[in-house]
Amino acid sequence: MPVSDFQPVIGLEVHAQLLTQSKIFCGCSTAFGAEPNRNTCPVCLGMPGVLPVLNQRVAEFAVRTGLALECTIRPTSVWSRKNYFYPDLPKGYQITQFDQPICEHGRLVIDTPQGEKAIRILRIHMEEDAGKSVHDAGGGQSLVDLNRAGVPLLEIVSQPDLRDADEAVEYLKAMRDVLVYLGVNDGNLEEGSFRCDANVSVMPKGSTTFGQRCELKNLNSFRFLKQAIEYEIARQVDVIESGGKVVQETRLWDVNKGVTRSMRSKEEAHDYRYFPEPDLPPLHVSAEAIDAAAKALPELPRAKLQRFTSQYGLPAYDARILTAERPLADYFEACAGHYKDYKKLSNWFLGELMRLLKEEGTPLSALRFTPAQLGELLGAVDQGMVSANAGKDVLGEMFRTGKAPADIIAEKGLAQVSDTGAIEAVVDDILAKNAGEIEKYRAGKKQVFGFFVGQVMRAMKGKGNPALVNELLKKKLGD
Amino acid sequence: MQLTDLTMLELAAKLAAGEVSSEEATRASLTRIQQVDPKVRAFLRVDEAGALAAARASDVRRKSGSPASTLDGVPLGLKDIFLTEGVETTAGSRILEGFVPPYDATVVRLLKEAGLPLVGKLNMDEFAMGSSNESSAFFPSHNPWDVSRTPGGSSGGSAAAVAAREVFGALGTDTGGSIRQPAALTNTVGLKPTYGRVSRFGVIAFASSLDQPGPMTRTVADAAALLQVIARPDAQDATSADAPVPDYSADLEAGVRGLKLGVPREYFTEGMDPEVEAAVREALREYERLGATLVDVSLPHTKYALATYYLIAPAEASSNLARYDGVRFGLRAKDARSLRDVYALTREQGFGAEVKRRIMLGTFALSSGYYDAHYLRAQKVRTLIREDFTRAFQQVDALVSPTSPVPAFKLGEKVEDPLSMYLMDIYTLPCNLAGLPGLSVPCGFTKAGLPVGLQILGRPFDEAGLLRIARAYEREHDFFRRSAPL
Amino acid sequence: MALTLEQVRHVATLARLSLTPEEEQRFTTQLSAVLDAVEQLQSLDVEAVEPTSHATLTSSRLREDVTRPSLPPEKSLANAPAKSDTSFAVPKIIE
Ligand SMILES: [Zn+2]
Q1: ipTM confidence score
Q2: Does some domain include residue C14?
Q3: CATH code, domain with C27
Q4: Contact C92 A271 (CB under 8 A)
Q5: SS3 labels along B459-477
Q6: Interface residues on B facing A, Cβ-Cβ cutoff 8 A
Q7: Which of B171, B201, B204, B367 would you mutate first to test chain A, the one with the most A CBs within 10 A?
């Protein structure tokens, strides 16, 4: 059977680092990039005698995420120990949640070529991250850095509802947008603060029994996720086609070779011996706390996108870009309060503003001008007080100095000349000096018109209202 | 009478009156250790410099009229399970030999803040697993009342040191009887508080849902005073209780008239030493004379407590002891060349037989295919045991029983028979499973001169009630005045 | 229940204990005896009983999300059997 006769079945496990100041069970900083073991204390080093105390923001973030993903929140969730030995796991067990996680039974809607599709969320639980081992340290040694040990994570497990690599990518993007919108995660795949494993299996089309699945790891970009899943589907189909059986195992995406390869671990079969963590009482979340979190929930990316198309009449393309990040969407809405041609406003956002932000590397939060000032500038352009081109310069100046647009226009003398008399005088002067060109024009060489416009604009230092210049030139040239 | 014969509160009174200095008391304690510890072997380590420095600081406070607490200046010993910043802490194990903690346990901090000089670290069964002190990786401690016998365990060193008057008091921990049983075997008072009453932060874990630190002293009033220092909620222990801390000495002398004391049928069983039973029965009659009513009660699931305990405690221990892996602190096997060796050889060489036995048992009880029938079932039976107590406390104010079925036994007698050793805890461990407070108070001696202890169990957070009941008996029988024949 | 030698070896592997042959034998006997003794729990009907995993039913004590000073690395690593700069060192991990 060709690949097209097989149905892939995919589920994703997302690990999202929560944006807390301190670790999940101790006061050490979660900051990235410190010298090894700089952010460690007896608790996260797993020293004798230490006890974990839950960072309450971790629970808040978990509830917020659960609500955004339409989960049921457990009034009482239970911590468990997952026991295994590894040098970057200081206590010899990971504190996580097992049979009673904080959130269950949610969904996330994604777009597919066939339309909207709801991917079911099986569960969300809180847990601590492990440290980092550097294996190729030389001298036959591996080195252990426990700065990451105890950083709070949410694990979000989907049902195996995804049917191809594109859906998986779409799901992961949508998930990232939601988490970033909620302010619980920075969405950074490269640094690993947002990461995912994929469970992939294939079954003959029409079958209802899932095939044996493999877990794919090391998928630290959307591209790798797509490539790895596509490779893995083809590999599993090959195995089955050649009469073999897919073995349940963990496989690593090899970026360089573009293949998934088995992690032939010499480790004995795992037996994590989960049991309830005696050092942490069960976590109680009150109905009031859940209600309050639900009320405080921000509008989510998908809802916002739909509202931007309906409320502002924007094309889906514009709305998608404007709502990709919450601060940009918020800023657009603030500006929309001061300028009512939303499509034109969107053009300025998608063009000039985003170019400036990107070039200067400025975060939106550091913008020095107000939405009212941007509205004022666009109004001035509409009214012909300043040309569209000069308007871009004004915006650049506002961006750098935070000065009011009117002041910049005045200071730089960018005000557009819309006085017909003044323009007419310049036009007359230019025509008088270029009798030969007028001849050519009248003889049919219409492109000379551009020459006249250029001459007039140069004489006016670019400040002539282009519409008026055009109009007067045409009149004088007898068109 | 020597200075070291004073109780904690007697010494505190003399310190307050300026009749004696903390430095003198601490030196007396250190001298006594030099004299008798070669026979008792209670101490793993003596911190002479640290104790004397703390004593002098206390004397300065006393002189300036601003003592840090009523016990300011009273020298104390610590079971080697409490982490002490800068002072080696081993839990009686080779695997932690040379481990110098970078922080103090919460209770150690509280003791320091209250001004008590800490004279040293006391011997214990390795990781508190044992009832005789013989599983200590270093040496067994001896019972001051008969040095051929055990002082009990796991806080055997602490009990022996207090009984031998090497220290005025000590802290121990109790997971299945480790404070009360050695107290009973050494003619001392041992109090295991309600689970959560005293912080476990900085206390090396054996079984997290059962462990509880508590005072080990010569008298009931000393136990009340010491508990007053260490009982409080701790932001670093999520299982520590917010319940208000009462004044433990307020009702100490209130007597037992009108109280109902339950006598659990299941705690007077075959296998109990007749002399122990006789001493305890006599104590019960004393309570009747003092105006208490004895009530026959039943705790029907008592017979399951031992099995329940020996599944839950080893299971938690197997996980708690996974951190001793030779990576970040403690022993690493010298001949370990691979990561696998670092783990397996270090743990093989660093742990003693009893610890390995319990790690094996606990790992098995949690392992795939056996969890439901072993660990989970034990947790359910634990509920039944708790409910037994809840029902009993609807009828009575406290329960009274022997602490240990037998007096101190010979060192070496039970080492090769783990099950008979485990039976030493049958009257003490149900209390831990239920999280209740329990106390052992001296109630006489056998003909051979071996101490017998009376156990009193109470409602959650009713330490004050237990102390009051124990004190009523102690007022009539001051066995604590007798000194061991050293 | 009686444990087999194989089971004892498997459990020792899970627990990362490199037991000697004598220990394997001794633990097989001793653990079997303990497991026999705990067998009595099987006779109880606990179908409808909730398990107790925590001795007291305290509500969870939480902490604010504020950072507190970490240990300086020299203290974090003071007890390390082997280290390299401020990292713990172990024999090379083979994956
Ligand atoms: Zn930390």
Answers
A1: 0.96
A2: yes
A3: 1.10.20.60
A4: no
A5: CCCCHHHHHHHHHHHHHHC
A6: 83, 89, 91, 96, 99, 101-103, 105, 200-205, 207-209, 235-239, 315-316, 318-319, 321-323, 325, 327-329, 339, 343, 363, 366-368, 371, 375
A7: B201
